[in-house]
Amino acid sequence: MGNVIDLVGQKFGRLTVLSYVKDNRSKGKKRSLWHCKCDCGKEVITRGDGLKNGHTRSCGCLQADIARTNSTVHGLYGTKYYHIWMNMRDRCNNAKNRMYCHYGGRGIIVCKEWESLENFIDWARVGYKENLQLDRIDNNGNYEPSNCKWSTAKEQQRNKNNNRILTINGISKTASAWAEETGISQSTLTRRYLRGVKGEELFKKVKKKEINISFNGKTMNLSEWGRELGIKPATLISRYHHGDRGYRLFRPVDKHSNRILLLSNKKHDANVSLVDQSREHPAFYFA
Questions:
Q1: Pairing with 85, which of 174, 185, 213, 248 sits 20 to 30 Å away (CA)?
Q2: Residue 80: pLDDT above 90?
């Protein structure tokens, strides 16, 4: 062997060196050849420099396996399972992903088993439906079979780590869950919570007060006036809270409206006729 470094017993990739064969000259350089056995069982003779620099890692079966895997992945490209799998891995491994800070940045990883697309699909096919999303049971746990399930978007929203938990009568639920159960908006519950409201006061419903407007001898609430005049109630409510009264409250939304208010004089509180131009006669009259 001369000055050749002994590689017998060492493993390079899938190859285990069994014995030294001989020196071989290639392009004027002396190369040592080694007898190796691959993990697949096949024996080969290969150059020592190829083993040491990582160029040779198997009898050829490794490349075949990689090609087979790529072919399988390519065949599944574009499927729903492929995109779910890719997005899961990207937000855990790609620091440039906008969601990385919530996943990989918090130490969330994809388990070794699910590094294989085929293994992930074997799990995913059980219980999957078009309206469901991949969800982790423990929001601080990893992506792995024992910690994942299929959930609706609403269920997944409740499982976020920034959800506020409200406790009443010893029962703890997220604000969104309480909102769904009580019929009070989540934003209202959260505002009350931040103001220090506790217990059942959190879920106290507020009765909406009807705003009744009397104008030229007729009294109706703003919703009724809106239907009467063809103006959205929300517009009338906004005008009312901005201090508009009389004609300014009921003025048409724009000049293109089919229904327009005609002032009998310059004063805003003067008698007003509401005319429907499409019928060319008064549709409603304030006397």
A1: 174
A2: no
